[in-house]
Design brief:
Structural class: alpha+beta
Radius of gyration: 29 Å
CATH class of the largest domain: Alpha Beta
CATH superfamily of the largest domain: Zn peptidases
Mean pLDDT: 93
Shape: globular
Number of domains: 3
Low-confidence stretches: none
Helix content: 25-40%
Number of helices: 20
Strand content: 15-25%
Largest sheet: 15 strands, mixed
Length: about 775
C-alpha cells in the first residue's frame, strides 16, 4: 500500500512537471487547416530560409540583399516602404554606424497613438546566420502582417513596422529611428520580437519606466494562448549583459513595450549554427501566437496612456495561465503568512503534534541539504570544466549537452536530499520537519520584499505549506491519504518553480547550476510531508542515484564536438604599424588542429598589451606569437580643422580607409573628455561631454553607405591627445597575404570576439 502511494505520488509529480513545461509553448499540429487569414508557419519558414542562408551583418553584400528581400516582401503586401539611412551613436556601447532601417506603415482609422512592430534584420558579426536572432522576428512580422491584412479590416490605430538595422552593434537602428524619424513621435506601444538562442518557450518581458499593472492587464486582455511570464523574469533580464531595441524606446522616448524572446538552446546564440535548420519550430509558433493575439488586440485598443500607478506581481499558475496581485499586497501577505505560521506552531505544540526540540532538530537536515545542494551543484560545474577544459571556449556558457547536465544535477540533488533526510531525521515527526523549510521560505520572502519584489510570488508556496501544516496538526488522516493530498496541494509549487530550475542555467549559463540546486532543495523541503516515509521511499533514492549516473554518462558521451555541435575557435592577426611588429593571437584556452597551425611551437601564454578589441565578455587572448610583418595599408587621415578659440581647441579628423574595413576602434591610453563630440556630424551623448577613463571611446562599424568616418570635438587648448586606432577587417581566411588552412566541419568561428580578423593598429597624435 505504501509503495503504491509512493508510485502514485511520483506519477503526479512527473505529470505536473510535464504540464508546467508544456503549458509554456505550443506544440505543432500538422493536421490543422490554415486559412488565408491564419498565420502560416510554412510561409514564415519560406522567408526564413531565404534570409538566413549567409551571414548578413552590417556592411556586407548579403546585408543589402536581405534588406532588399524584406523591402520587396513588404511591397508585395501593398505597403509603401522606406529605408531610413541615418548615422547613430550609442554611448553606452561606444558604438556607431550608418544604419539602414526598413520602415512601413499601415494606416489606421483613428488619430490615436500608433502600434509599432519591431525586430532587426542584421546578424551578429561576423559568422552568425541570424536565423533565430532575429530572422525569426522578421518572418513573424512578415507573415503576421500578411495574415492581418488578409482580413481586409483596417485597424483603429496606425501600425508601424520597424525592421531595424545594427541592433547587434549597439541598438543603433532603434536609436536612429527614435532620434530622427517623424513616426517615432506618435508611438504608444512597441511589440518587439527577439531571440537569445534557437529554441524554447518565448518569454514576455515588460519594458516600462513606470508601473506595470496597466500593461499586464492589457497583455492578458489580448488573450495569449501560451503566456510565459513572471515579474521575476524582468529582474533577471536586467542582470544580463545585453539590452534589446525596445530598451531604446523606453530609455530615450519613454515608450512602453513588450519583448517576446526565446532563450533556449543558448549554445547557438550568435554562432554560425544559428541556422534555418536548427530553429525550433515550436518557438516560432509561440512567437506567431503572441503576434496574432497581441496585434489583433492592440491595433484596436486605446494606446494613449498605458502607464499606471501600481505594480503587479505576476507568474504562470495552473489553470488560470497567469496569476497577479499588487505590490501593495506583498507585505500584508508576508505578515499574514507569518501570523498563520506562529498560530499553527502554538496549536501544534499545545496538541503535542510539534515539540520544540523536534522542530529545532528539523532545521539540521534542511539547512544541511540546502548547503550541500548549492555547494555540490557549484562544484559539479567546476569539476566538469576540469574534465572538459574546452568548455571554457563556449563563451555564452551553455554547452551542447547542457540540458543533460541540468538533469544530472537535479537527480543528484534529489539523491542527496533523500540521503540527508534519511540520515538525520530518524523517527522525527513529518510535521516537525516541515517547520524549518516553511520558516526559511518566510525569511526569503522578507528578503524579496526588501530587495527583489518581482519575486514576491515566492509567498504562494508558503501558504500551501501552511495548509499542509494545518492539516497535519488538526486532522488525523491516513498516511496514504495525507501523502496524495499533500502532493495535490503542492501542485502550484511544482508548476511555478520547476521551469525556473531549467531557466536559470539556460539563460545565465551552466555556472549558475547552483541556483538550480538551491531551488531543488527549497522545493523538496516544502514537499517533505509527502516524501518523509523512509521505508517506502528508499527505492526513490536508489532510482535517483541510478539515473544520476545514467544522465551523467549520457552527458559525458555527448561531451565532444561534431559537425552538428561545432567547436568554437579563433585566430587573429595583429599588425602594429608604429613598431613594425606583428602577432597572431587566439582566444582559445584549448588549442586544436586549426589553432595549432600557428600555435605549434614557440608561442607565448597570455595576451598582447592593448591588442584586444572590445568584446561582450571582455575576453582576452590566451596565447600569442610573433609573426611576419605584412605592411597592410592604414587609413588616410586628414585634419580638416584644428583651431583654437579662447581656451578651447576645435578638431575635425576624417579617416578614409585604404582597404576594405568592417570596423574602426578608437582608444585612449588615459582619461579623456571630448566636448561637442560628433561622429559624421551626429552628436554623441546629446552634446554632453563624452568622458572615458581610458580604453575604447568609439567603435565605428562601417556600413554599406560609409566611405569615410569623420570625428569632430573640442578639448582644452593645452591638452594633448594620443589616440590608438585599430582598423579591423574580417578577411583573415580570404586575404591573399595568408595561406591558412580553413576550419574542419566540426569547427566554427568563436562568437562574441573579433575573429578571423586582420587588425592594423597605429597611433594618432593630436
Amino acid at each position: 500500500m505504501k509503495k503504491g502511494t509512493s508510485l502514485l505520488s511520483v506519477f503526479i509529480v512527473i505529470s505536473v512537471l510535464f504540464w508546467s513545461f508544456s503549458d509554456l509553448q505550443p506544440s505543432i499540429s500538422k493536421k490543422k487547416q490554415v486559412t488565408p487569414t491564419d498565420f502560416s508557419l510554412d510561409n514564415a519558414l519560406y522567408h526564413l530560409k531565404n534570409i538566413s542562408q549567409k551571414t548578413h551583418h552590417v556592411g556586407t553584400k548579403e546585408h543589402k540583399n536581405v534588406q532588399q528581400y524584406i523591402v520587396g516582401e513588404l511591397e508585395k503586401l501593398g505597403l509603401e516602404t522606406e529605408v531610413q539611412i541615418q548615422t547613430a551613436v550609442n554611448k553606452k556601447w561606444f558604438a556607431a554606424t550608418t544604419t539602414e532601417n526598413i520602415i512601413a506603415k499601415i494606416e489606421g482609422t483613428s488619430s490615436g497613438k500608433s502600434l509599432l512592430l519591431l525586430t532587426h534584420y542584421d546578424s551578429n558579426p561576423h559568422s552568425s546566420l541570424g536565423a533565430s536572432d532575429a530572422g525569426s522576428g522578421v518572418v513573424t512580422i512578415l507573415e503576421g502582417i500578411r495574415a492581418f491584412l488578409a482580413k481586409n479590416t483596417p485597424p483603429k490605430n496606425d501600425i508601424i513596422i520597424l525592421i531595424s538595422d545594427a541592433e547587434e552593434l549597439g541598438l543603433l537602428g532603434a536609436k536612429a529611428f527614435v532620434a530622427a524619424h517623424e513616426l517615432a513621435k506618435n508611438v504608444g506601444l512597441v511589440l518587439n520580437f527577439e531571440a537569445r538562442g534557437s529554441g524554447g518557450p518565448s518569454y514576455m518581458l515588460l519594458e516600462t519606466n513606470g508601473k506595470n499593472s496597466q500593461l499586464m492587464s492589457e497583455f492578458m486582455a489580448s488573450k495569449p494562448n501560451y503566456p510565459a511570464a513572471s515579474s521575476l523574469m524582468y529582474s533577471v533580464y536586467k542582470m544580463l549583459p545585453n539590452d534589446t531595441d525596445l530598451t531604446v524606446f523606453r530609455e530615450e522616448a519613454n515608450i512602453n513595450g513588450f519583448n517576446f524572446a526565446f532563450i533556449g538552446d543558448h549554445f547557438d546564440y550568435h554562432t554560425a549554427q544559428d541556422s534555418y535548420e536548427r530553429l525550433d519550430r515550436e518557438s516560432l509558433a509561440h512567437q506567431a501566437d503572441y503576434f496574432t493575439t497581441s496585434v489583433n488586440y492592440f491595433a484596436n485598443s486605446d494606446l494613449e496612456n498605458l502607464n499606471s500607478e501600481k505594480d503587479l506581481v505576476y507568474v504562470n499558475f495552473p489553470f488560470v495561465k497567469i496569476i497577479s496581485y499588487p505590490f501593495s499586497w506583498i507585505l500584508p501577505m508576508i505578515i499574514l503568512a507569518g501570523l498563520g505560521f506562529l498560530i499553527l506552531l502554538v496549536f501544534g505544540i499545545f496538541w503535542n503534534k510539534i515539540t520544540i526540540k523536534g522542530m529545532l532538530k528539523g532545521f539540521v537536515p534542511f539547512l544541511v541539504s540546502l548547503i550541500l545542494c548549492g555547494v555540490v551543484s557549484y562544484g559539479f560545474w567546476k569539476l566538469i570544466l576540469k574534465l572538459h577544459p574546452s568548455y571554457t571556449d563556449i563563451l555564452q556558457g551553455f554547452t551542447y549537452n547542457g540540458y543533460l547536465y541540468i538533469t544530472t544535477v537535479v537527480l543528484l540533488n534529489i539523491w542527496i536530499l533523500f540521503k540527508v533526510y534519511r540520515y538525520f531525521t530518524g523517527n522525527a515527526k513529518t510535521t516537525e520537519l516541515l517547520v524549518a523549510p516553511t520558516f526559511i521560505w518566510l525569511l526569503i520572502n522578507v528578503f524579496v520584499f526588501k530587495e527583489l519584489q518581482g519575486a514576491a510570488f515566492f509567498i504562494l508556496p508558503v501558504f500551501g505549506a501552511l495548509f499542509i501544516l494545518g492539516i497535519s496538526i488538526f486532522m488525523n488522516l491516513k498516511k496514504s491519504t495525507e501523502s496524495i493530498l499533500f502532493i495535490l496541494i503542492s501542485i502550484p509549487l511544482l508548476y511555478i518553480f520547476a521551469p525556473m530550475i531549467k531557466m536559470f542555467p539556460v539563460g545565465l549559463g551552466l555556472s549558475k547550476l547552483y541556483i538550480s540546486g538551491l531551488f531543488v532543495a527549497l522545493i523538496f523541503g516544502l514537499m517533505i510531508a509527502t516524501f518523509h516515509q523512509k521505508e517506502s521511499n528508499h527505492w526513490l533514492q536508489k532510482i535517483s542515484g541510478f539515473l544520476t549516473i545514467v544522465f551523467f554518462g549520457m552527458a559525458t558521451y555527448n561531451a565532444g564536438f561534431s559537425v552538428d555541435n561545432k567547436k568554437p575557435n579563433s585566430l587573429v592577426y595583429i599588425q602594429n604599424s608604429d613598431t613594425k611588429k606583428a602577432y597572431y593571437g587566439t582566444y582559445n584556452t584549448v588549442l586544436d588542429s586549426y589553432t595549432k597551425q600557428i600555435f605549434n611551437t614557440e608561442y607565448t601564454k597570455g595576451s598582447i598589451p592593448a591588442a584586444e578589441t572590445k568584446s561582450k565578455y571582455n575576453t582576452r587572448f590566451q596565447y600569442h606569437k610573433e609573426t611576419d610583418f605584412k605592411a597592410f595599408k592604414t587609413s588616410n587621415i586628414r585634419i580638416e580643422l584644428d583651431t583654437v578659440i579662447n581656451s578651447n581647441r576645435f578638431v575635425e579628423v576624417v579617416l578614409s580607409p585604404q582597404r576594405a574595413l568592417n570596423k574602426i576602434e578608437f582608444l585612449s591610453k588615459g582619461a579623456i573628455q571630448l566636448n561637442q563630440f560628433k561622429v559624421n556630424d551626429v552628436l554623441v551623448n546629446n552634446g554632453k561631454p563624452h568622458k572615458t577613463r581610458g580604453g575604447t571611446f568609439l567603435i565605428y562599424h562601417l556600413g554599406n553607405e560609409d566611405k569615410a568616418v569623420t570625428l569632430s570635438f573640442s578639448i582644452k587648448k593645452e591638452e594633448k591627445l594620443e589616440i590608438m586606432i585599430n582598423e579591423i577587417s574580417y578577411d583573415l581566411l580570404t586575404n591573399k597575404a595568408f595561406s591558412l588552412t580553413p576550419r574542419s566541419e566540426e569547427m566554427m568561428p568563436m562568437p562574441f570576439v573579433t575573429n578571423d580578423a586582420i587588425i592594423v593598429t597605429k597611433k594618432l597624435h593630436l
